[in-house]
Amino acid sequence: MPLFKDYLRCGYYPFGDDEQFDIELGQVITRTLEVDIPQFAGMTAATGRKLKRLMAIVSTLAPFKPNMTSLGSQIQVSRNNVEDYLLYMEKAGMVAQLRTNAGGLGALGKTEKVYLDNTNILYNLSEGSEDIGNVRETFFFNQMRVGHKVTASKISDFEIDGLTFEVGGKNKGQNQIAEAKRGYVVKDDIEFSYGNVIALWALGLMY
Q1: Mean per-residue pLDDT for 83-99?
Q2: Contact call for residues 159 and 101 (beta carbons, < 8 A)
């Protein structure tokens, strides 16, 4: 369990053992937003600074249901630009968008929530004010989407291939998955899985 806590803070990147990990990760985030994405997308340096402002806003709110118009007004761009920016940030590994399980023309689904991509970024940007519930959900989404299509659940936190998942601490109950055909509670701070209860750390073995 202590090793899992360390992973959440500094285990996602190959330079996690470096003494100045926090500084190095901060530099990676800044370069990605101000240099890499603008160069890839043909953006100006001013747009790169807007990406960084958007990232700062996301880091204080995530996970949150995005209001593109409101976000656009905060960084002084149109709502369409915000959607593009979030998509670029998602492709660059800065954020992750949890979408609804839509089909047909809306195969990508509507964005239900925006998360930071991984818990290392979350801890780096939160500066000690991180919410543990946010940490748990971010880890679950980050690990499970590697091999599965993870979508928003209408009754709980996440849905994968018809399975419903509720993520929480060791005292999390079964109420929110009571109506699910196949529901699971993913708990932090437990060592072993049992029944329909899955230890959160074990999801790190998915790939």
Answers
A1: 96
A2: yes
